[in-house]
């Protein structure tokens, strides 16, 4: 079979994918595959901002590193964390040069916000839609690059390797297309859709992790999952609208069912500004004591005009749900939010253990977050490490090999069956009961066996290769990897080595 050849293929068009493409050598021919529209990604949903040491008079690298270590339970990779923090300010400057509109003070300096777990105001933001501002600014710059082909509605179905070449099969607007490259960047985001309730977009099905795992890459710490404490408690929708941590940074209170503040009972010093995992566990504990899952976030004691100007998107979304953020408490509850584990990479290069394969962003595991990600370090990680991966590719990529077609082995054909109805629902139910905020080890052990059977079924070759099949297989692989790590952490069966 003939495959169209590129110098680099990037799977994913969030901040990591876009910023990698922008920083690649203009002599390299690049293909970017976006599963849906380029704005439909987790990056675009990021509200809070980018954490970086901008105000050197009040902040420094060691403070940012220490805050990240405390939030991460000191399980962070210190070498990579230092890279993250020290390379942060230069990437903020680069975004400013690209036209990203960070909020400014009256003197023209960047307005820096405070969020949970931070000891200083260091969050550069664009109101409460920073991710969307960065994504749309990068899309504008990348789309005009002559060396980059951006394909939307291009669902990567299979990724294999033959010798030096990766081969990719993609469904592009309903038609199958075939591509090849020696260098591939996975920037496919997280695994949120393996849960019943998540803040993640519909694209977050763990595709890159599944492809990397099947290619032989090392996958690490998949049980390091963050649950955000303040998602809007919408019991009718699986995708939960996030209410940014920045509200608590501006003074919002958390209430229990009786509209009483409770965080000071558990965290007398940090209170509502404790790290996310701590606040989520406190909510669960308070719910057990009160016998209720009803919790609220309240910023109505602050000036209403300030709140509307600072959080216009959140204010608008809550008004659509029937709540006025400036006048009343709004219902919140913890929700799956972020994956700290993933595809193991070298922090300064983005390389995996598979020759030519890179990973960046949420699907990658640099170790910078440890057990729990510090607020607004995610966009920072996406920027810093995707740029470093691009710089590594620029040093080693062969030039002038793109454009022609290469004959390589075809993909194994699938069967004719459609994916059985209900598999995704089964996976979500298993994950929700096995691991929500804290692991339920008995449920995880039985759930792992059930997930393994689903995974084996999907690997049987009986099913038609389609977007539905590819996503379901990715979700089953992600669930299996997560629960395998949960069970191992409890001293249970080791399962397969990986």
Counted beta strands: 22
Oligomer: single chain
Spatial order of the strands forming the largest sheet: 8-9-10-1-20
Radius of gyration equals 22 Å
Strand content: 15-25%
Query: Could you name the ranges where pLDDT drops below 50 across 5 or more consecutive residues?
Result: 494-498
Name the structural class: alpha/beta
Sketch the major β-sheet: 5 strands, mixed
Helix content, binned percent: 25-40%
Mean pLDDT: 94
Shape: globular
Total helices: the number is: 16
Distance between the termini: 31 Å
Short characterization:
The chain is of the alpha/beta class.
Question: What can you tell me about this protein's structure?
Answer:
- Strands 8-9-10-1-20 form a five-stranded mixed beta sheet. A five-stranded parallel beta sheet has the order 7-3-2-11-18, with helices on both faces.
- Strand 9 and strand 10 (175-181) form a beta hairpin.
- It has helices at 15-23, 42-45, 61-71, 78-86, 88-97, 130-143, 207-215, 246-249, 263-266, 276-290, 304-310, 312-320, 377-396, 423-434, 441-458, 467-489; strands at 2-5, 8-11, 30-33, 50-51, 112-113, 123-124, 148-151, 154-162, 165-172, 175-181, 183-186, 219-220, 225-232, 253-255, 295-298, 330-339, 342-344, 357-359, 364-365, 405-407, 435-436, 438-439.
- It is globular.
- It is α/β, with parallel strands linked by helices and 498 residues long.
- The longest helix has 23 residues, at 467-489.
């Amino acid at each position: 079979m003939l495959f169209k050849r590129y110098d680099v293929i990037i799977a994913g068009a969030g901040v990591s994918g876009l910023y990698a493409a922008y920083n690649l050598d203009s002599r390299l021919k690049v293909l970017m595959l976006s599963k849906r529209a380029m704005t439909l990604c987790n990056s675009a949903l990021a509200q809070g901002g980018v954490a970086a040491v901008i105000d050197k008079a009040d902040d420094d690298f060691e403070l940012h590193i220490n805050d990240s270590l405390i939030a991460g339970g000191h399980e962070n990779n210190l070498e990579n964390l230092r890279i993250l923090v020290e390379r942060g300010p230069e990437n903020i400057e680069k975004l400013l040069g690209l036209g990203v509109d960070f909020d400014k003070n009256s003197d023209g300096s960047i307005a820096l916000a405070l969020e949970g777990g931070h000891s200083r105001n260091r969050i550069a933001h664009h109101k409460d839609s920073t991710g969307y501002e960065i994504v749309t600014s990068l899309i504008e710059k990348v789309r005009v690059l002559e060396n980059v082909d951006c394909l939307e509605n291009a669902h990567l179905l299979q990724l294999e390797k033959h010798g030096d070449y990766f081969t990719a099969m993609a469904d592009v607007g309903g038609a199958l297309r075939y591509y090849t490259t020696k260098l591939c960047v996975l920037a496919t985001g997280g695994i949120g859709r393996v849960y019943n309730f998540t803040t993640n977009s519909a694209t977050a099905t763990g595709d890159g992790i599944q492809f990397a795992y099947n290619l032989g890459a090392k996958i690490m710490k998949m049980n390091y999952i963050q649950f955000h404490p303040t998602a809007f408690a919408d019991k009718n929708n699986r995708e939960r609208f996030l209410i940014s941590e920045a509200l608590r940074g501006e003074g919002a209170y958390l209430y229990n069912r009786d509209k009483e503040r409770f965080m000071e009972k558990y965290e007398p010093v940090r209170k509502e500004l404790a790290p996310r995992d701590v606040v989520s566990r406190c909510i669960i504990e308070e719910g057990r004591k009160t016998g209720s899952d009803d919790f609220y976030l309240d910023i109505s004691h602050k000036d209403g005009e300030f709140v509307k100007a600072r959080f216009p998107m959140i204010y608008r979304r809550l008004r659509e749900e029937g709540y006025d953020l400036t006048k009343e408490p709004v219902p919140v509850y913890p929700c799956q939010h972020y994956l700290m584990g993933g595809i193991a990479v070298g922090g300064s290069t983005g390389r995996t253990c598979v020759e030519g394969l890179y990973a960046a962003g949420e699907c990658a595991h640099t170790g910078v977050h440890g057990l729990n990600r510090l607020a607004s370090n995610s966009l920072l990680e996406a920027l810093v490490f995707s740029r470093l991966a691009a710089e590594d590719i620029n040093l080693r990529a062969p030039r002038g090999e793109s454009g022609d077609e290469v004959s390589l082995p075809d993909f194994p054909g699938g069967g004719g069956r459609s994916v059985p109805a209900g598999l995704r629902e089964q996976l979500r139910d298993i994950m929700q009961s096995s691991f929500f905020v804290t692991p339920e080890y008995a449920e995880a052990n039985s759930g792992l066996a059930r997930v393994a059977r689903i995974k084996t079924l999907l690997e049987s070759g009986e099913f038609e290769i389609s977007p539905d099949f590819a996503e379901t297989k990715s979700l089953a692989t992600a669930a299996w990897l997560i629960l395998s790590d949960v069970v191992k952490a409890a001293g249970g069966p080791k399962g397969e080595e990986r």
